Records
---
Amino acid sequence: MALFYFSTSHTSHITNICAVSSAYLFNTNNKIHKYGTRYNNNLHLPIVNLSKFNKGPYISGVKVFNHLPEYIKALANDQKCFKSTLKRFLYHHSFYSMDEYYEYKDDRTA
């Protein structure tokens, strides 16, 4: 896995998590159920009871990936295109905290 270095540690953290979180390693919601929902292509977030697991890299990776704009998530099957598009997105939107990343709303979907 190639590492991309940006101006902030949070941006590189997002890149590293999303580089691993792909449709090949995780189940998407459309594999869990056959309903055409708004979040059909998001990664399925498992229900867990342990807070230690909730704060771990698996759940964090799924949450970070699911918050990406749809046009980036659609490229998850093509790793090279996905990484370059993600790198470009994070270069244009410098997030200085994970809260700032989660507050971001994509203008294309509004």
---
Amino acid sequence: MLRSVLLIITLMTLTAPAMSAQGLHDVVQTGDAAAVRRALATGVDIDQRDGIGRTPLMLAAARGNGEIVQLLLAAGADAAVRDNNGVTTVMLGADSGNLPMVQSLIAAGANAQTPNSNARDAREFITRNVSAGQGSAELQRMLDYLDEQATFNRLYPPRPASATGRSLYAVNGPEELLDISQQPLTREQLQQAAAAALLKRGWSVIVSEPDRVVGSHSKHDIEHRVEIRIQPPTVRIAYLRGYEYVKPTWLKNLKQDMTVTMSRARSAPPAAR
């Protein structure tokens, strides 16, 4: 009897159909990250397209599901794909309003300036929401970021891979996290500390906002960019652009310098009124 049961289980395993690519589309649409992990483990074609030419990554981007987007990118999904109408992952992601997810897509190879079949890039694709009175602070920030990308790509167009085969621009570069949970400092003081750390190391401050400071530094004719994002209880220091092989020590030095600057700000006497 036991032998018969084992034989039946073996036959069921051998004859069980592998998940279809369309099945992966369906799983992604549920928003269940654990189910997506299980689906990816079956070896399904991750870039299979549906009836309108969209891949599972495009569906996840359209839903604004950053966790699933990261899973698909880590599994090798193509971030630069376009559907039958030329719509890109960045357009869909930007329309969802998830800025960190869009940044991940661009870091993985998507281009915010790639046009759709109507010759509209990602910024023009989502501008209709603003003109229709549906704008928000998050959407405006998305537009500002896409403007930054357009300016950067115009000044520093993507270059071919180097002789070593490495991309000249970073993809998911290293990062450092700084714990500020015990720092009784205002956002303005944290912003100033971030800018001071960048300037001390020879970076130019090109963006300075209450929740993020961006530095620029040229080396070997390539502009590197680093972002210090203030998100209490932590500060995230990460590369935005640069060589794929970058120096993690640069980020460690910025973290150390910011820690010193915050310490000085904390111990400084209050300004005279």
---
Amino acid sequence: MRTLAAFCTVVTGLVLAGGAQAGIFRDASSSTNWAGYAVSGSTFTDVKGTWVQPAANCAASVGTSTYAAFWVGLGGLAGGNGGLEQTGTESDCRNGRAVYAAWYELLPDDPVPVPMAISAGDTISAEVSVDNSVATLTLTDVTNGQTFTTQATPSLLDISSAEWIAEAPSACFAANRCEQLTLANFGTVEFSGSSTTANGHVGTISDGSWSATSIDLGGGAGGATAAALSPDGSDFIVAFVPTQVAQPQVKTKAKAKAKPKPKPKSRPHRVTT
């Protein structure tokens, strides 16, 4: 996701730890920018999800900016063709001020702002579908009743995976020169009603028709972890993980060694074994 900041940003495709895609409940993967769930192993034509817009905690971001994005999408996993069709929202701290926004993006093209007023606590519903070469992206603020829908023909169409993600975006200042942005403290975000369609079959994340994996975010941008799926495989929580600050070492003066006292003559002490 390319965050809607004053500069251009780009999301890099997820690289699974060890370069392998693992089945749900059997393994988990790590990423430097994604946390959540992804499914692969089929041809996906629709993905849906709902979340409550998290409130950005900017208490520790005075004078700095941090970013967090929440979205559903098709494509973008390692092994794809470089495309990614996605729509979602942001909870950012920009110079210590909480900012909320909506967007959609068809990689490798730039992100497009969605003209919707988003507030913390709003219920957001998102859907991305593909019919032949046309992608339809729909974003709805269920709380205030706003809905945005657009159709486009991506230059790169990837339907080899589906995702439900909380993300730390990256900033690009020139072609092929990007840096990871610091993840905003979003507390927790709960995805619900998560489903996808592959080859005409509709199922939740844990459906046996595809291979799914949980993803934890870690690295220099910050951390976030995805909790276990609900019993029906449609709900899960992603939690922000605060950076651990190392405590400074306090130097203390070494105590002066006492002069040894003369040892008295005594019987040897016997130890019972």
---
Amino acid sequence: MRSRPAGLSPFRVSTKTSSGKVLLSAIALPGLSRRPTALTLPANNAGSSMTRSIVVAGVSLELEERGQGRPLLFLHAGEGLQPQRAWLDLLARHYRVIAPHHPGWGNSALPTWLSSVDDLAYLYLDLAAALQLDDAILVGACFGGWVATEMAVRDTRRVSKLALIDPLGIKVGGVMDRDIADMHAMTRPEFMRLAWADPAKGEIDYTQLPELELAAIARSREAFAVFGWKPYMHNPRLKRWLHRIDIPTLLLWGAQDGIVSTSYGTAWCDEIPGALLEVVANAGHFPHWEQPEEFADALVRFIDSK
């Protein structure tokens, strides 16, 4: 049975439009799977921007939605969604971006039974069905890339293209080789040096954050460890099933990624039929945050290609 962090305060779940109008507000406790009232809103208006909750398979998920047009389901990194960064609005110029906060991140619940990446893959396949997505683009970064891959080896009927941004998830070296840096065993400064080409772009002054935000960060890091602790951040069997991915696939990699190297990206590319690998200069593990314009341009080119 998974233990939960003690002493976390209640937090407020709010649904807002781009104008800032609150449409729904409720009190929730971190980690509880109580079913809130599901909210149905138009999701495809020009310039639309909203945060809402949806219940899928008994799990309350917080969704960020922006833009209109072809749906793009974005699965975020272990460091969180960070929708305030430029990447989201850049993608929303072209697509209807649907970006859930993983269970245990943001205001998304983490029930005790949900504890594996397999669970997340099935949960998001159910989300795609609940939203009636069709001809969607599936994009995953870091940990989200692992989840997106687990989805794609199972069922691609609702998605037509896959983009993986510096994904975790497979084992390519020998038993004693470390393919993925142990992010939980290093200090924060060490992590920043490995994860960012320019660590200053990713710095956060935690002393300025309110307690609720700090509690949410701690909760998300616990959830990250729950899903990827052992074996560390990969599925030993996933590599052998990558041949099942039957849609065009782009691997987008930061040239200075010290968490998973570009050679790890090449190994991914070799296993997925017809996959393309594109390297983003002056970027580390999070090219969508560090070089958002280059990231968005590369993704749009891939999606629009025949």
